[in-house]
Design goal:
single chain, mainly alpha
């Protein structure tokens, strides 16, 4: 019988560290924006009204439900492919730890919970919730027809900062969109690195990925280019918003880890892919978000 640990493994709960910190950034950007429009003179802590606290809680729920739906659907859609891949054949569905029906039920339940939660945030979040679901669920099918799959994954995670900002303010602004662009290119870049492990398998199964299309060396160059664009976006956000020292400390740390991961992976040595993929990027997102929040509230 499947346990909670099995389900957490199925949806890769630990990978929440990629998008969630940027959702927190989007939330605090929204709070600051609302304070400025209200000419609030109280301390930042005192500005956390019941409305903001409720929004933060609902944002966390939306992140939880959307990511659970996306990962469960990914495992469901790829269950036969995963069974043929030596690297993934021990995942819950191919191994039979969790049934396909249970995974699909989790997708449906999480999707409905996501839309319902968005309803309690505001009208624009509710109306856009099916679009967000289409992106995060649709990603799982893209490896069958486009090498842009890495960046569609990035697009799904990039909804975190702008979505959180919308939850607070109810409208779009350019600054959170810059953070979304940062996430899109950052995630797309490190997903290419992760996909290096399956280059041969993807070619054999006629699956689409940049490593399968271009080969290891050229794929690594594309990843570096994506991360260079990510760096430009995060710098542009800091310049546009006239952020101070705390932001630039966090940015320097983020950029360092952005490119440090490329020193860990070599065309002839992929042994440190998981270190580059999970540990380095997880630390980068958390530390960056901490420094941005400090900049916004100090």
């Amino acid at each position: 019988m499947a346990t909670i640990k099995n389900y957490l493994s199925l949806v890769k709960f630990s990978h929440t560290v990629f998008a969630l910190p940027f959702a927190v950034v989007g939330f605090f950007l929204g709070v600051v924006k609302m304070r400025m429009e209200e000419n609030a003179s109280s301390s930042f802590i005192h500005s956390f009204t019941h409305s903001f606290i409720q929004s933060f809680f609902l944002i966390l729920l939306c992140m939880l439900f959307a990511r659970t739906a996306a990962m469960a659907f990914n495992r469901y859609a790829d269950r036969r492919i995963d069974a043929m891949n030596e690297r993934t054949r021990n995942r819950e569905l191919p191994a039979g730890t969790i049934s396909s029906a249970a995974a699909l039920a989790l997708v449906v339940a999480s999707s409905l919970a996501f839309v319902a939660t968005a309803f309690f945030i505001n009208r624009i979040c509710f109306y856009l919730s099916p679009v967000a679901l289409a992106v995060v669920l649709g990603y799982s099918l893209t490896k069958r027809f486009t090498w842009l799959c890495h960046f569609i994954l990035g697009l799904g995670l990039s909804l975190a900062p702008i979505g959180a900002y919308l939850a607070v303010t109810g409208r779009f602004d350019f600054l959170p969109l810059l953070f979304s662009a940062t996430v899109l290119t950052w995630v797309g870049g490190f997903d290419i690195i992760y996909a290096l492990q399956d280059e041969d398998f993807d070619k054999q199964q006629k699956l689409y990925s940049i490593p399968a299309w271009l080969g290891t060396r050229k794929a690594m160059r594309v990843s570096e280019a994506a991360h260079f664009i990510s760096m430009l976006c995060v710098v542009a956000a800091g310049v546009m918003a006239h952020f101070g020292l705390w932001y630039w400390i966090g940015t320097a740390f983020f950029i360092f880890l952005l490119f440090y991961q490329h020193t860990l992976v070599k065309p002839n040595d992929l042994s440190k892919v998981n270190l580059a993929f999970f540990t380095t990027n997880g630390i980068a997102s958390i530390v960056f978000a901490v420094f941005v929040v400090i900049e916004l509230v100090h």
